[in-house]
Design goal:
The chain has 14 helices and twelve strands. By secondary structure, the chain is of the alpha/beta class. It folds into two domains: 214 residues, Aspartate Aminotransferase, domain 2 (3-Layer(aba) Sandwich); 125 residues, Aspartate Aminotransferase, domain 1 (Alpha-Beta Complex), CATH 3.90.1150. Helix 5 links the parallel strand 2 and strand 3. It binds pyridoxal-5'-phosphate. Pyridoxal-5'-phosphate (PLP) binds next to helix 4 and helix 5.
């Protein structure tokens, strides 16, 4: 260990002497892993040792990738530093400079911005198409097209994608498919079972579930995930061990959270649909056997003053995110979909009265009461 204070104060670890068997996976908050000698390093490259350097691989980030893979019926998964990072490495594993991607028009604004700005710099062209029109998808295919991209339940208008048809169509033209399953989660929909090649998540949302971790995951078959992992390593989009650990902790309650949140959302959607001061309620009707998700989007245009509605929400937090255990609201026009021009927003139905509600695990009576009161106060 060394004799001097300066050495001892650094080399005090008792790790090698202890036989600790912790109940939950510890946080491997380390940038690298140590080796006994040079031969030991070679063992890593021969596949006989698992870890070298945390950007390349870490037990916590690997655990998150493997856990989501298990829930999504995938062979393997890669964790990333955010949902957007996961989308980037997923897309770059399936499209390179000169290739063409067809994406649904009504995707998350941040993904839209990534596709319209950064992918262009990578030499990848993206066409945005109305995915309710399958013929329009076929018409958009060129000899450069490699990938079709959409969301299982779209943000913020909650259109349920016809995943099976899209997967079949893509196979017919030898194209790859990628689905963002953030809103549905594998609790509701498992896109790989429907023929999709890669599934991506913003684990910042339901997988983490507590609004305290920013993370992403890509899952798919072994060969595809190896390519995604290479992108993650080379582009440095790796997730930190602590964030991965937090996401894994959140994931353990996904089933019970979703059960409650989906049930609450159904009841809130019904109550809002019955309220004459709500212009329109967007809530899917056929997303899965287990329900239709925990987001309810409403349009108050012409019925309520939107600013007054937001001011009257009492304990409901106004946040530009979703999916935590607390009920929250967001305003897509100036946050998640700000990157879209007013014209595109209008085409998609993102009006100045559109409010996205992320329904939490609280008492449904309290949730309905708070929204009913805010609407009552804001109605025109
Ligand atoms: C559907 C969807 N996908 C991806 C993202 C991006 O995730 P992150 O913020 O973790 O990068 C978001 C963020 O809101 C989202 O709603």
């Amino acid at each position: 260990m060394g004799e001097h204070f300066a050495t001892q104060s650094v080399h005090f670890s008792t790790q090698d002497k202890q036989k600790i068997e912790s109940k939950v996976t510890p946080i491997y908050q380390t940038t690298a892993f140590k080796f006994k000698d040079l031969e030991d390093i070679e063992k890593f490259y021969q596949g006989d040792k698992d870890y070298l350097y945390s950007r390349v691989g870490n037990p916590n980030t690997d655990e998150l990738g493997a856990a989501v893979a298990l829930l999504e019926h995938a062979d393997a998964g890669v964790a990333a530093s955010s949902g957007l990072a996961a989308i980037l490495i997923g897309v770059l594993s399936l499209a390179k400079a000169g290739d063409h991607v067809i994406a649904s028009k009504d995707i998350y604004g941040g993904t839209y911005e990534l596709f319209t700005t950064e992918l262009d710099d990578f030499g990848i062209e993206v066409s945005f198409v109305d995915f309710t029109d399958h013929q329009a998808i076929v018409s958009a295919i060129t000899n450069k097209t490699t990938l079709i991209y959409s969301e299982s339940i779209t943000n913020p208008l909650l259109r349920v994608e016809d995943i099976e048809t899209i997967a079949k169509l893509a196979k017919q033209y030898q194209l790859k498919t990628m689905i963002d399953n953030t809103f549905a989660t594998p609790y509701l929909i498992q896109p790989l079972d429907l023929g999709i090649d890669l599934v991506v998540h913003s684990a910042t949302k339901y997988l983490g579930g507590h609004s305290d971790v920013t993370a992403g995951v890509v899952v798919g078959d072994q060969e595809s995930i190896e390519k995604v992992k290479r992108k993650a390593i080379n582009l440095g989009t790796t997730l930190s061990p602590f964030e991965a650990w937090l996401a894994c902790r959140g994931l353990k309650t996904l089933d019970v959270r979703m059960e409650r949140q989906v049930r609450n959302a159904r009841k809130l959607a019904d109550a809002l649909a019955a309220n004459p001061a709500v212009g329109c309620v967007y809530y899917p009707s056929h997303a899965s056997e287990k329900g239709n998700g925990a987001i309810v989007t409403i349009d108050l245009t012409g019925f309520c003053d939107t600013a007054t509605f937001f001011k009257g929400l009492d304990w409901v937090k106004i946040v530009p995110t979703l999916a935590g255990v607390e009920t929250s609201v967001s305003y897509p026009q100036t946050t998640s979909h700000r990157a879209l021009s007013l014209e595109v927003q209008e085409q998609l139905g993102i009006t100045d009265g559109l409010v996205r509600i992320s329904v939490g695990i609280e008492s449904i009576d309290d949730i309905i009461r708070v929204f009913t009161k805010a609407i009552e106060r804001a109605k025109l």
